[in-house]
Write a structure and sequence with these properties.
The protein is an all-alpha fold. The chain has helices at 3-17, 24-31, 35-38, 45-71, 76-93, 95-105, 112-139, 149-169, 171-190. Helix content is 79%, strand content 0%. This is TetR family transcriptional regulator.
């Protein structure tokens, strides 16, 4: 057993069952070790959880940043829509994203501040990267000259949040319905035409 395997097993358990539904015994069982062996690496469940969450937060940020940097030359409507789809695809294929979303919406009460500090940093940094793209689209006449790009960015993140909620709770049909309606009215509200 390696430390990497231990953290991956913990991440999978936390993603599927949340903090409260995961025990050190379950994690140990998944790795094929005795529970006491985990304490060689971590003082307890909180320390293991926070390390795994920190790694996942870094991975989610790297993925979002890489997407933004490599796709910002797309027309703004395609860029924004593809950004939503990027998150949908990651949720369907990546346990990091499942864990990130579950814990972002339902952090353990006693670790709330530590978790939400990373969540809010992520959202604030997204806002800083997306707003200049919208500002440029306004300058190019693609978006309405009357929009406030800061508010338009925050509203877009609201669309992203609604997609996250359906990913967690609604299933594929509800997600498609929410994504289609949210995107349609968001784009109508900010586009020039």
């Amino acid at each position: 057993m390696t430390l990497v395997q231990l953290k991956k097993a913990a991440q999978n358990r936390f993603a599927e069952h949340g903090y409260d539904g995961t025990s050190m015994a379950h994690i140990a069982e998944d790795v094929g070790i005795k529970k006491q062996s985990i304490y060689t690496y971590f003082k307890g469940k909180d320390e293991l959880f926070l390390e795994v969450f920190g790694n996942v937060a870094a991975n989610e940020w790297a993925s979002a940043k890489e997407f933004i940097e490599s796709h910002q030359s797309l027309p703004v409507d395609k860029f924004l829509y593809e950004f939503l789809m990027h998150h949908k695809d990651r949720f369907e294929q990546n346990t990091d994203t499942k864990f990130w979303l579950r814990i972002s919406f339902f952090p353990p009460a006693h670790l709330y501040d530590e978790v939400m500090e990373k969540v809010y940093t992520y959202l604030d940094e997204l806002e800083k990267l997306i707003q200049p793209i919208l500002r440029k689209a306004v300058e190019e006449g693609v978006l309405s000259a009357n929009i406030n790009t800061k508010r338009a960015t925050v509203a877009f993140l609201g669309v992203l949040d609604s997609v996250f909620v359906e990913m967690l709770y609604g299933g594929p049909e509800r997600l498609e319905k929410r994504l289609d309606a949210s995107w349609h009215f968001y784009w109508r509200g900010v586009s020039k035409d």
